[in-house]
Amino acid sequence: MTRTLVVAPQWIGDAVMSEPLLAALAARGDQLTVAALPWVAPVYLAMPQVGHVLEWPLAHGRLDWAKRRRIAAGLRGRFDLAYVLPNSLKSALIPWLAGIPQRIGYPGEGRYVLLNRRLTSPPGRPPMVAFYAALAGQPALANALPKLFFDPDVLRRVTDAAGLQSDAYWVFAPGAEYGPAKCWPASHYAELARALQSHSGLPVLLLGSGKEATLCRQIADEAAGACRVLAGQTTLVDAMVLIAAARGVVSNDSGLMHVAAAFGVPQVAVFGSTSPEHTPPLSPHARVLWLKQELKLDCMPCFDRTCRFGHYRCLTGVAPSRAQAALGDAVLQGH
């Protein structure tokens, strides 16, 4: 059995997109260990094919040379093969320092020596599932749908602790680490929350990181009692469980959007500056709202963090009523 180390991507959405690669490696008999930064590692707990998850306590953007050497020393002799999914030099250092015999990845930023099996990087912005699957020579996985799974007992434990029942609440994930050019307006989320609560009688949970708690409180204040703010109050694992057990999810293009898709939850994803042609929610129960064809804005997609023109029309133009209709369609098809 091949002992395989997978160095995980640095962002939640990319971690979800790596699931088809890991499923293929496990299917061929690899014994999988995933090494991930602390804020990404919980995603791999929802992938049953992963035998072990190692949290590497490394700061984003820092070399931490001494710490990487210590981690590498603990890995020596434990693995036959390493897949390095991020393209950074730093991500390839530990497998190289650990002397893992085969180190596979894209050339990336100046790491030619660190990898001994290098694939040519595809041009442009390829779909991420295909980007990762190609590392294992699995082109057939290009159209695979990532899948996450939690045992029903885990779902029951977390929903019971929150005083909730599965399929009896909505989830909004209104934040996005990337910047405001990805974020549907708070007022739109609040209007949608009021409409959903009025129509269904079900509460809306607002999930996200501690950085997004202020945004979520703003939405809750405008939504007149329709929302419950849990941003910054849950672990990532519990947030994932609450998404998995929700009746439906509404989000921006974000990591939690990909989590919802991988659990197959009915969802609506609002896109603005980014493109669903590059990072769509990969689920038959997802509905994407992107106004490129309707607005005829030459700047879409710009991939900017903030709107260079200051109007954010690509986001403000998505009406809450339209999101409600799309979510209703997704729920109808998904249940």
Topology:
Blueprint: E1 3-7, H1 12-17, H2 19-27, E2 31-36, E3 52-55, H3 65-75, E4 81-84, H4 89-97, E5 102-105, E6 117-118, H5 128-133, H6 152-161, E7 170-173, H7 186-200, E8 204-206, H8 213-222, E9 227-229, H9 236-244, E10 248-252, H10 255-262, E11 267-270, E12 286-289, H11 292-295, H12 313-316, H13 320-334
Parallel strand pairs: 1-2, 1-4, 2-3, 4-5, 5-6, 7-8, 7-10, 8-9, 10-11, 11-12
Helix pairs in contact: 3-4, 6-9, 7-8, 7-13
Task: Kindly summarize this structure in a few lines.
The protein is of the alpha/beta class and 335 residues long. The chain contains 13 helices and twelve strands. The chain folds into two domains: 141 residues, Rossmann fold, CATH 3.40.50; 183 residues, Rossmann fold (3-Layer(aba) Sandwich).
